[in-house]
Amino acid sequence: MAAKKLKYAYYPGCAAKQIQKEADWSARKVADELGIELHEMHAATCCGAGNLQEHDPAAALAINARIFSQAEEMGMDIVTICNTCLQTFRYAYARLQDDDIREKINAVLVKAGVKPFENKMEPKHLIWVLVEEFGAEKLKKHITSPLNGMKVAPFYGCHSLRPRDVFDGKGGQKPQYLDTLIEAIGGEVLEYNGKDKCCGFHYMLLNEKEFLRMSGGHSHEAKEKGADVMVSPCTLCDMAVGAYQSRSEKAMGININLPEMSIQQLIGVSMGLNHKELGLHRLHQDPRAMMASYGVKEG
């Protein structure tokens, strides 16, 4: 019996479309190599990123229900690579399980000429799909350039973990998705206190000094514990601990120099995929010399 084809309505999120393009490129490359179909949601809007949810909860639900309705028309679950989009989706999805709330929101959609959300799809993260639906053991068969014990610090990002009640057991204080994937591609999971803490991204505009201390503190702790690289499943965390690392160094008066990338980039490296197509040249800390020291070939 042939295995079920994995097909998803792909929602990379605004950051991956504009700033963290390498996260989008690598997700598509890895998925394509694994035979996972990611189908573009051409009419999808921004999810509201939690901000709209605080300002106008009803409007936030309507916007997300509209996105969900599009996925239903495609006959697929939604997959994202952004923790903030994931949290926003999961919050809306949990609220829309209430029949009365869904009926009220659907009345708004119908008035706008949108097909009602019928609760026939679920929002997921790409790492959930790789572990639960594709399978870590199956992933191992695609590894041609294993990490050979490279010490990898997983940085989960709080928006894929909290609030726990909207994640249906897939979040919580002791997540395993990144750990499982790191081990599947031949890395050693490095344990440190900051792995499930906030990167501080949403604090950036309120108190930049504290934001830099938070984001840089996590990277510095991981480096001090012996990490060779840090990986995240979130485009905003990528920016906070990767793109802002040099500014954290200056603000804190320390040297960190810890390469940071999306988990799909590191998976792609272990699969021997082309480094430029994975966007490694866009990283703010060059990992190539470190990778070469572990015998990881440059694709």
Residue stretches low in confidence (pLDDT < 50, at least 5 long) are none
Strand order, sheet with most strands: 2-1-3-4
Separation, N- and C-terminal Cα atoms = 34 Å
What order do the helices and strands follow? EHHEHHEHHEHEHEHEHHEHH
At CATH's second level, what is the architecture of the largest domain? 3-Layer(aba) Sandwich
Secondary structure blueprint with pairings:
Elements: E1 7-11, H1 14-18, H2 21-34, E2 37-40, H3 51-55, H4 57-74, E3 77-80, H5 83-95, H6 99-111, E4 123-125, H7 126-140, E5 151-154, H8 177-184, E6 188-189, H9 208-224, E7 229-232, H10 235-243, H11 245-252, E8 260-262, H12 263-270, H13 288-293
Parallel strand pairs: 1-2, 1-3, 3-4, 5-6, 5-7, 7-8
Write out key terms for the chains shown.
299 residues; alpha/beta; Glutathione S-transferase Yfyf (Class Pi), Chain A, domain 2; Rossmann fold; 2 domains; four-stranded parallel β-sheet; globular
Describe the structure.
- The chain has 299 residues and is of the alpha/beta class.
- The protein folds into two domains: 7-124, Up-down Bundle (Glutathione S-transferase Yfyf (Class Pi), Chain A, domain 2), CATH 1.20.1050; 135-293, Rossmann fold, CATH 3.40.50.
- The protein is built from 13 helices and eight strands.
- The strands form two sheets. Strands 2-1-3-4 form a four-stranded parallel β-sheet, sandwiched between helices.
- α2 packs across α12 (263-270), α4 packs across α5 (83-95) and α7 (126-140) runs parallel beside α8.
- The two termini are 34 Å apart.
